């Protein structure tokens, strides 16, 4: 079409064009020659803020229960006002995915962009996981971790290591997941971020379960559950009890303990916002009760 013929651009995805590699290389060299370092820094900062602002709004609309770094919400923004609905938010995340992934990779080594790099990784983790983009998940989390370690920010290090561990667990790489979860525990405890510590313990428990260490997994689940109770996190406690009862105890044939855990999970899972979780727990409880012959 006209844009391809005249501008040396190609249709990359839905209503998205990209320049030919040589055009981009030429533009990069011209920018370095014509614009000052300060101007380039300001332009890059504006671009990153734009991506962070909209990624934060989109993922808070789509995944409101996803764990996020404390204090990272763009409170002045109503996510629904930015995108209108879930469909618009998801469309933006899909259309802009190559751009914000490239931005995170590009700025991961720039100290002036550290907080925005790990902020972008934190905002996008749930999207990458649920939409099944493991390579992007790993690339952006690694860039965020590089920035967080450089700045000695324990909260960000904990979040990025947990993201990497979640990605490994999601792909079935259990030894790597266990290693990253163990590394995430240290900064989460050092920073006092107990919600992250509880989530890491739960992930580590699931990993140990898959690695064939059931007793170690039970201890970790119980540690996570204690923290969730202390925090008043009923939904988190329900998920942990569901994994322990509907997963591990059931597989071990410890049906009475499985039934007790699942009934306790139901007691912690009465909010209308978690109806799907409640349905999953009821399904597991039905399977356990059926196996008990009742």
Description:
Helix 3 runs parallel beside helix 7, helix 7 packs parallel to helix 9 and helix 14 runs antiparallel to helix 15. This protein has a two-stranded antiparallel sheet with strand order 1-2. It starts with a helix and ends with a helix. It is elongated. With 294 residues, the protein is mainly α. The model has no long low-confidence stretch (mean pLDDT 87). Strand 1 and strand 2 form a beta hairpin.
The total of helices stands at: 15
Question: What is the average of the pLDDT values?
Answer: 87
Assembly form of the protein: single chain
Determine the strand fraction and express it as a percent band. under 5%
Number of strands: 2
SS content category: mainly alpha
How do you describe this structure in short?
Helix content is 77%, strand content 3%. By secondary structure, it is mainly alpha-helical.
């Amino acid at each position: 079409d006209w844009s391809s013929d005249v501008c040396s651009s190609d249709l990359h995805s839905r209503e998205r064009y990209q320049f030919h590699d040589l055009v981009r290389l030429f533009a990069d060299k011209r920018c370095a020659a014509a614009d000052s370092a300060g101007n380039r820094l300001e332009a890059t900062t504006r671009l990153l803020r734009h991506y962070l602002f909209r990624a934060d709004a989109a993922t808070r609309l789509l995944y409101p229960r996803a764990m996020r770094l404390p204090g990272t919400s763009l409170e002045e923004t109503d996510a629904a006002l930015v995108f209108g609905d879930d469909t618009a938010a998801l469309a933006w995340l899909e259309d802009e995915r190559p751009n914000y992934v490239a931005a995170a990779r590009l700025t991961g080594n720039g100290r002036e962009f550290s907080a925005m790099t790990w902020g972008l990784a934190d905002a996008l983790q749930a999207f990458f996981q649920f939409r099944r983009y493991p390579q992007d998940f790993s690339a952006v989390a690694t860039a965020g971790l590089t920035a967080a370690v450089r700045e000695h920010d324990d909260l960000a290090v904990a979040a990025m290591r947990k993201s990497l561990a979640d990605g490994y667990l999601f792909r079935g790489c259990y030894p790597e997941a266990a290693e990253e979860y163990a590394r995430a525990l240290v900064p989460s405890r050092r920073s006092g971020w107990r919600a992250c510590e509880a989530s890491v313990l739960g992930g580590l428990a699931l990993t140990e379960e898959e690695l064939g260490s059931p007793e170690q997994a039970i201890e970790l689940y119980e540690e996570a559950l204690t923290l969730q109770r202390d925090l008043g996190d009923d939904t988190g406690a329900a998920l942990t009890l569901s994994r322990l009862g509907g997963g591990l105890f059931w597989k071990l044939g410890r049906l009475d303990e499985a039934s007790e855990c699942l009934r306790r999970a139901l007691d912690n899972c009465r909010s209308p916002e978690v109806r799907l979780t409640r349905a999953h727990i009821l399904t597991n409880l039905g399977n356990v009760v059926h196996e008990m012959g009742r």
